[in-house]
Amino acid sequence: MMVPMNTTTSTTSGERAPDPVSVRAPGKLYIAGEYAVVEPGHPAVLIAVDRYVTVSVSPALDTGHITSDQYANLSLEWHRRGDDLVIEPDQTPYDFVLAAIRVVEEAAVALGAPLRMFDLDITSELDDKVGRKFGLGSSAAVTVATVRALIGYYGLDLTSMEQLKIALIATIEVQRSGSGGDVAASMFGGWIAYTAFDREWTRAQRRERPIDDLLSCEWPGLSVRLITPPERLRLVVGWTGSPASTARLVGGVQARKGQSSVHYNRFLTQSGECVSSLIEALEHDDADGIDRAIRRNRDLLRTLGEHSGITIETPKLSALIEIAEASGGAAKTSGAGGGDCGIVLIDREADIDELSAGWEREGIRALDLRVHRPDTTIE
Ligand code: PMV
Ligand code: MG
Prior knowledge:
Distance between the termini: 12 Å
CATH architecture of the largest domain: 2-Layer Sandwich
Number of strands: 12
Number of helices: 11
Structural class: alpha+beta
CATH class of the largest domain: Alpha Beta
Largest sheet: 8 strands, mixed
Number of domains: 2
Order of helices and strands: EEEEEHEHHHEHHEEHHHHEEHE
Bound molecules: (3R)-3-hydroxy-3-methyl-5-(phosphonooxy)pentanoic acid, magnesium ion
């Protein structure tokens, strides 16, 4: 299934180096199914948004550099020792990038592609100019952009699902929790229905199987499908101004999920039913069904937060939602909550002047985002 398509040889031997490659990957937002989606096989709906991380890879000689506009003063230098990529310790801001490089290179070696030196440069639109995080999934987008740029640089012929699996392996090597829905949204674009892989299964397989084998086999629980929402549906995104830690919030729920008072299994079942009905309604242009599912998911998440002692819907997110509801939209927290963004689904014809004015009074900023159209097929 996978053979290197590029057969250009090493720069040090004086032969032609690969052409530079530049890839951009979009950020994401959750529409529904948060928290439940971290359990393998449970569904969520996400979108990719039209703000991007761009990764450019170009040939280098003995020393490679990794640079980013996010860390203007931190140019990371690296060398090779055999096939290993060697860097000085303490350069952690590049964790996801380094993990992505290592996993792609492991695949390249398995496919017989010679490893090379390169400079890798990152630019991001996912945080604003002063570095404030909107919660649009910058770690996932930088992982996806790095994976895709290096696959291009090495000329590896991998399906889009194999590319997704490389990016997922890279993220679990850095991060303890997370469903990978953000990675899938960034990889495929558009609106997706996603169910998560089993991290423990993947970790165990990783120790036992060669990477090419792991990339081509079925992963239990993992599924991604593009969905086409109704034309009339408009997405409005509000930003609360306060960044939230997904890892801390998810960790809080995970730590308490065994307590009977959390009713975790009931939450998983109800979230699954709710997300399935949302997907059905999106695909059948059923505006009432969409509104019902979004409102139901808001309630389920609020209840989960109350039962587990975690603030998913902060007072500012409640204000964001209530103002949107008053204008006829269906609204909820997006992602882990605790700050970051809320989303509103509303008819394209509806007047949103009141909504905008209400948000402004509450210090909520409407983000000027659109859905990034799918640019790869899922295969
Ligand atoms: O807050 P975000 O946008 O990173 O989303 C987190 C969504 C969760 O379902 C709570 C966690 C996950 O990894 O899916
Ligand atoms: Mg978030």
